[in-house]
């Protein structure tokens, strides 16, 4: 039986942990050749080891890079093309939450840090990958937005502002590049149990973060956190079988966004 990603080259940022790591293992299991990007080179190796544990013949290139540095972004895109000759799909996923605080108390340096990674990093990735895909005449991009990109999230001005920006970039570029055979979509995860979400809960209540988590999911219609593998299934679909879905922002949050 043919695998969905057989002979496909998939580039992923934020691949050292969380949603990026899980998605990398998922698409590799379905035959993808992978280029994995993250600032944490050691953790990237752990992702590669997880992939090789499942498939010792998997082709994986790891690139340590700061996505907020445009030259570093150009480098990881160039390395992908030099190594594999093309880019079939791009999971533009790297991001941080930043510190939680009221807007009036939100540090300007912290705000800029979140903007540099979450918004500039996504823009730089799209800018340079789209050049490759336009020349190819095909390709799929999945950007990681958030439910915080479609509604307000208290105490997270930087995060919410940048994720709203990711939604805007997704929709705008989808209009521009559909004519070149490239479809561009975004996922909007809610509370998915990853290290980032644990960190967020610890900011809310350092001593009782697990109890804070229970209270957090109590308002979710499904009464639980999402699982990384549930997000990975959506990412894999959008990168492989969703050619006529373009400019969509797909919530994956257990229905929480529709409750209020």
UniProtKB/TrEMBL annotation:
<keyword id="KW-0560">Oxidoreductase</keyword>
<dbReference type="Pfam" id="PF13561">
    <property type="entry name" value="adh_short_C2"/>
</dbReference>
<dbReference type="GO" id="GO:0008206">
    <property type="term" value="P:bile acid metabolic process"/>
</dbReference>
<dbReference type="InterPro" id="IPR002347">
    <property type="entry name" value="SDR_fam"/>
</dbReference>
<comment type="similarity">
    <text>Belongs to the short-chain dehydrogenases/reductases (SDR) family.</text>
</comment>
<dbReference type="GO" id="GO:0052588">
    <property type="term" value="F:diacetyl reductase ((S)-acetoin forming) (NAD+) activity"/>
</dbReference>
<dbReference type="InterPro" id="IPR036291">
    <property type="entry name" value="NAD(P)-bd_dom_sf"/>
</dbReference>
<comment type="function">
    <text>Catalyzes the irreversible reduction of 2,3-butanediol to (S)-acetoin in the presence of NADH.</text>
</comment>
<protein>
    <recommendedName>
        <fullName>Diacetyl reductase [(S)-acetoin forming]</fullName>
        <ecNumber>1.1.1.304</ecNumber>
    </recommendedName>
</protein>
């Amino acid at each position: 039986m043919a695998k969905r990603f057989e002979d496909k080259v998939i580039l992923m940022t934020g691949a050292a942990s969380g949603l990026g790591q899980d998605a990398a293992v998922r698409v590799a299991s379905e035959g993808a050749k992978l280029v994995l990007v993250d600032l944490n080179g050691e953790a990237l190796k752990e992702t590669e080891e997880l992939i090789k544990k499942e498939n010792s013949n998997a082709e994986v290139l790891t690139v340590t890079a700061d996505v907020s540095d445009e030259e570093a972004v150009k480098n990881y895109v160039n390395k992908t093309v030099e190594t594999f000759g093309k880019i079939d799909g791009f999971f533009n996923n790297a991001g941080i939450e930043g510190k939680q605080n009221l807007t009036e108390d939100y540090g300007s340096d912290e705000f800029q840090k979140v903007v540099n990674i979450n918004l500039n990093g996504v823009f730089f990735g799209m800018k340079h990958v789209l050049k490759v895909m336009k020349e190819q005449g095909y390709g799929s991009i999945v950007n990681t937005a958030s439910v915080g990109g479609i509604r307000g999230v208290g105490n997270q001005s930087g995060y919410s502002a940048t994720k709203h920006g990711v939604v805007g970039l997704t929709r705008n570029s989808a209009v521009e590049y559909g004519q070149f055979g490239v479809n561009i979509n975004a996922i909007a995860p809610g509370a998915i149990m990853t290290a980032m979400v644990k960190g967020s809960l610890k900011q809310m209540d350092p001593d009782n973060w697990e109890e804070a988590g229970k209270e957090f999911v109590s308002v979710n219609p499904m009464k639980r956190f999402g699982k990384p593998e549930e997000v990975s299934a959506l990412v894999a679909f959008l990168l492989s079988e969703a050619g006529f879905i373009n400019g969509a922002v797909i919530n994956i949050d257990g229905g929480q966004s529709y409750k209020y």
